Amino acid sequence: MKLKMKPVIDELKPYEPGKPIEVVKEELGLNSVIKLASNENPHGPSRAVQKQLQQAGTPNVYPDGHARELRQAVADYLQVNEGQLLFGAGSDEVILLLCRAMLSEQTNTVMATPTFSQYKQNAAVEGAKIMEVPLNDGVHDLDAMMDSIDKETRIVWICNPNNPSGTYVNAADFSAFMERVPSDVLVVLDEAYGEYVEASDYPNSLEMLNTYENVLILRTFSKMYGLAGLRIGYAVGAEPLISKIEPLRPPFNTTTLAQKAAVAALDDQTFVQDCREKNKREKHKLNTFFQEKGCFPYPSETNFLLVDVGVNGDRVFDALLHRGIIVRSGEALGFPNCIRVSIGTEKENEQFMGNFSEWLTTLEQ
Ligand SMILES: *Cc1c(COP(=O)(O)O)cnc(C)c1O
Predict the structure, then answer these.
(1) Averaged pLDDT in 10-residue chunks for the chain of 365 residues
(2) 175 and 28 in one domain?
(3) What is the CATH number of the domain that holds 124?
(4) Is 88 in the same domain as 226?
(5) Is the CB of residue 220 below 6 angstroms from any atom belonging to ligand 1?
(6) Is the shortest distance between the CB of 233 and ligand 1 below 6 Å?
(7) What does R_g of the chain's alpha carbons equal in angstroms?
C-alpha cells in the first residue's frame, strides 16, 4: 500500500475480542455454545431496561449531546456536580479522549502490565512513551509505579479491580500512593468492575475526588448494568479537568437509546444488588472448584476469574471451544498458563465445570 500512515500505526494490532457465539457455532457445527469470555452480565439488563428499550422513540433525531437526563441521574446517584461528568461510547471512548487530550510524543504514561489493553493502545497512537510496571502477584505494584513517574509523565492508569487479574488495590495503599503522586500527573482509576467488589477496604474513590483534583474515575454501564451492546460509560473528575476534555468529545457520541437505557439501569439498584449476590455465590463455587482441581484462581473482586491451569491457555481455550464453551486464553492477556473465565449463570457455570473436569481427565490419560 502506498498510503503513508503515522509510523506507530504499522505496529498496532487490532483488539482481539472474545469469539462471538454465532461464529463458533458455524465454524464448529455446534448447536449450543456459551460465552464466558467478555465479562458481560449474564443476567442483564434488568427488566426495567428491557421495557425502556421497547419504547425506542425517535431515531431520526440526533441524541442530546449533553446527555442531560442521564447526567442529572448520575450526578444525583453519585452526589457530584453535573459538570464533573463526561459521557462516552463506553469508557473505551473516554480512555481515547484522555489520551488525545494529554499525551504526545514528548510525554509518557505509566501503567501496570498486564492490564486493560486500551490504555496502551490509545497512548501508543498519540506517540507517548509507555512505561509498563509488572504486577506483583497479580496486583498493581504502586511503589514501582511511583518510581517510574518522571517530569514527562502525564497519566497513570490504575485498573481497579484489574482486568485481567481480578485483583484490587486497597484504600490504604491507594491513599499512600496519592500522597506521593505529583499534583500535575493525572491518576485514572478504572472502576469498570467496581459494582462487583466485595472487599470492605476498596477505596472510596468519590471521596478521594474531594482531596485530589488529579484523580479521574472511569465507570461503565457495560458490565454490571448489562448494557455492553449499547456503548455507554463515563468519567467523574474535577470540573476544570472535565471541561478541558469536553471539547474533544464527538458531539453526538452516545446514542439516545443508550442514554435512556442507562437512566433506567441506574434506577434499578435492586437488580444490581441481586446480580452482585448471584455473582458472589457463583464466584465462590468456581473458586472452590478450581482449587479442588489443583488450579490457582487469582483472588477476584470482579465477575471473572483468572485461573492458572498449569498448561498453556491456548490449549485449554481450544479444548473448551470444541465443547461449546468460549473463554479467553491468558496467552494474549499476558498470563500464558492461564484462562480468564467470566462468571456466568448457575447453569452456564455448571456446564463449564463439567466440561473442564472432563477435559482434565483427558490430560491425565
Ligand atoms: C470492559 C472494560 C472497559 C470498557 O468498557 P466499555 O465501557 O464497554 O468501553 C474498561 N475498562 C476495563 C478494565 C474493562 O474491563
Answers:
(1) 87 80 90 95 95 86 97 98 98 98 97 97 97 96 98 98 98 98 98 98 97 98 98 98 97 97 98 98 98 98 98 96 96 96 98 96 80
(2) no
(3) 3.40.640.10
(4) yes
(5) yes
(6) yes
(7) 21
**Is there a single domain that holds both residue 112 and residue 166?**
yes
192 C-beta closer than 6 A to ligand 1: yes
* Ligand 1 atom with the shortest distance to the CA of 93: 9
Residue nearest to ligand 1 atom 7, measured at CA: 90
> From atom 12 of ligand 1, which residue's Cα is the shortest distance away?
192
Domain boundary pick from 267, 283, 312: 267
CB 306 near ligand 1, within 6 Å: no
The residue contributing the CA closest to ligand 1 atom 1 is 192
> Is 203 within the bounds of a domain?
yes
Is the shortest distance between the CB of 190 and ligand 1 below 6 Å?
Answer: yes
Closest Cα to atom 2 of ligand 1: 192
Domain end among 267, 292, 326: 267
Please give the number of the atom of ligand 1 that sits closest to the Cα of 162: 13
